[in-house]
Amino acid sequence: MDQQATDLIVASQAALRQASALMVQYSFSIVGALLLLIVGWIAAMLLQRWSYEGLSRIRGFDETLARFFSGAVRYIVIILVLVMVLGQFGVQTASILAALGAAGLAVGLALQGTLQNIAAGIMLLVLRPFRVGEYIETSSVSGTVIEIGLFATELKTSEGLYRLAPNATLWNVPITNYSRFPSRRHELSVTVPRGDSTTDAQAMLMDVARAESRVLLDPAPTTFIDSVSNDSSTVKLRYWARSENWFATTRDMTKALKRAFDERDMKVSEQSSE
């Protein structure tokens, strides 16, 4: 009986010593983990702020991209800190990184379309084939750009409708930007019947161009004979106008040309050249 009591006391003392050792060991680990979390969180916030400010100082760098990359820096630092904290408690970090890689691959496969839009949005913001306020056209969408986001681009159509286009649909197709350059070319063609003077037609076309103040002098407007047939000849006027008032200029030029040639009984047709 006394021997059993003695063995119990010895076992209890050994258990207490082992528990004390574990408490001391893990208390240091817990304190170290807390300090690591605090320092890591502060470092993540500072790195996010510094990266955002640094990217914002780059001329022409989009603010959306600056926020995206600075946020990515923050989350990468936080993930690394969490892995280090788990390592403090003896967890195998290699297996954690492998699990994170597998999870990232699974999420990437599940969100393949979304990731394509993000990648396309980054490329659109970096290369800038169009900017806010410009009018663009693709094979499937056209309109004035309202906002360029990481996932989609907002546009306003010529009919005044709202249109949301996923960035992937704008990146892998040819884009026509009608507003990027300050001026655009336009052509007007006139059919001169056989027997009428093409020289007079050219002179009258130049008079119409000179009378319109919105027609640019550089490049200067030009006229030329485009084609000749047995019954008629086609004379063209080629001129340039500012992009912002190109549409109004072309409509007014067509009207002025029609008035000028009505009395000569000439057929007038119009052709645009972008």
TrEMBL record:
The keyword Calcium does not apply. Residues 114-180 form the Mechanosensitive ion channel MscS domain. Residues 72-112 form the Mechanosensitive ion channel transmembrane helices 2/3 domain. Residues 187-265 form the Mechanosensitive ion channel MscS C-terminal domain. GO terms for molecular function: mechanosensitive monoatomic ion channel activity. It is a multi-pass membrane protein. Pfam families: MS_channel_1st, MS_channel_1st_1, MS_channel_2nd, MS_channel_3rd. Its main location: membrane. The keyword Glycosyltransferase does not apply. It is found in: Cell inner membrane; Cell membrane. Signal peptide: none annotated. The chain crosses the membrane at residues 26-47, 68-90, 96-127. Keywords: Cell inner membrane, Cell membrane, Ion channel, Ion transport, Membrane, Transmembrane, Transmembrane helix, Transport. GO terms for cellular component: plasma membrane. Belongs to the MscS (TC 1.A.23) family. Homoheptamer. Mechanosensitive channel that participates in the regulation of osmotic pressure changes within the cell, opening in response to stretch forces in the membrane lipid bilayer, without the need for other proteins. Contributes to normal resistance to hypoosmotic shock. Forms an ion channel of 1.0 nanosiemens conductance with a slight preference for anions. This is Small-conductance mechanosensitive channel. The lineage of its organism: Bacteria, Pseudomonadati, Pseudomonadota, Alphaproteobacteria, Hyphomicrobiales.
